[in-house]
Specification:
With 200 residues, the chain is α/β, with parallel strands linked by helices. Helix content is 37%, strand content 12%. It has nine helices and six strands. Strand 2, helix 4 and strand 3 form a beta-alpha-beta unit. The longest helix is centred in the last third of the chain and has 13 residues. The relative contact order is 0.16.
């Protein structure tokens, strides 16, 4: 048994003896959301677009790609805010990648118990890792957000490229920045993708 085809493949499981039972999502988690304006005020997120990622700070999560993409985008649009939820051994190393002039535009919130409430203020949800099946992606999609994820692991089992989000090549911060900008510049498409994800 595995929660994704990618996970079974990684363990060389025999196909004739393998069954995928995907993770579920409890919709009642969305009933306890805090008011979006309260979330923005509490974490000083401003009024501009918010791009978020929920993931522990481990080497496999590739937070540096998000930092590099964010800096590229902020050079032309200082209204953006990048939010990271999670903790881990690489947290301080990732923080040091942020240039001094952009420190206020990258918010490191640490471990949070109200992830769904924070996700509701995201304009885009990111996953720059090759998880077997990501709970973070399901949280974004349940919140009606378009997603951008690496084209690896179990991500393609959740993200249908061009339908409910975009799949990009791993460790490509330029492509990541381009897809973020594209979604921000096309809000109707972003909403449609978010609606598609929520309907799954």
């Amino acid at each position: 048994l595995g929660n994704s085809a990618a996970g079974l493949k990684a363990y060389n499981a025999l196909s004739k003896k393998s069954v995928v039972i995907s993770n579920g999502f409890d919709d009642s988690r969305l009933n306890c959301k805090i008011d979006p304006n309260t979330v923005r005020q509490e974490f000083q997120l401003g009024k501009g677009p918010v791009i978020g990622m929920t993931a522990n700070f481990m080497p496999v999560k590739d937070h540096p790609a998000v930092i590099h993409a964010g800096v590229r985008l902020l050079q032309k649009d200082p209204s953006l805010t990048f939010v990271f939820i999670g903790d881990g051994p690489q947290l301080n190393a990732v923080k040091r990648l942020v240039p001094q002039e952009y420190l206020e535009r990258f918010k490191f919130l640490g471990k949070q118990s109200t992830v769904e409430s924070i996700c509701q203020v995201f304009d885009i949800g990111l996953l720059t890792s090759c998880d077997s099946l990501s709970n973070a992606l399901m949280e974004y999609m349940a919140s009606g957000k378009p997603v951008i994820a690496y084209r690896c692991g179990g991500n393609p089992e959740l993200v249908k490229d061009g339908v409910n989000g975009f799949l990009i090549e791993p460790q490509n911060s330029k492509e990541l920045a381009g897809k973020i900008r594209y979604l921000l510049d096309n809000p109707q498409l972003a909403k449609k993708m978010g609606d598609e994800g929520r309907s799954l």
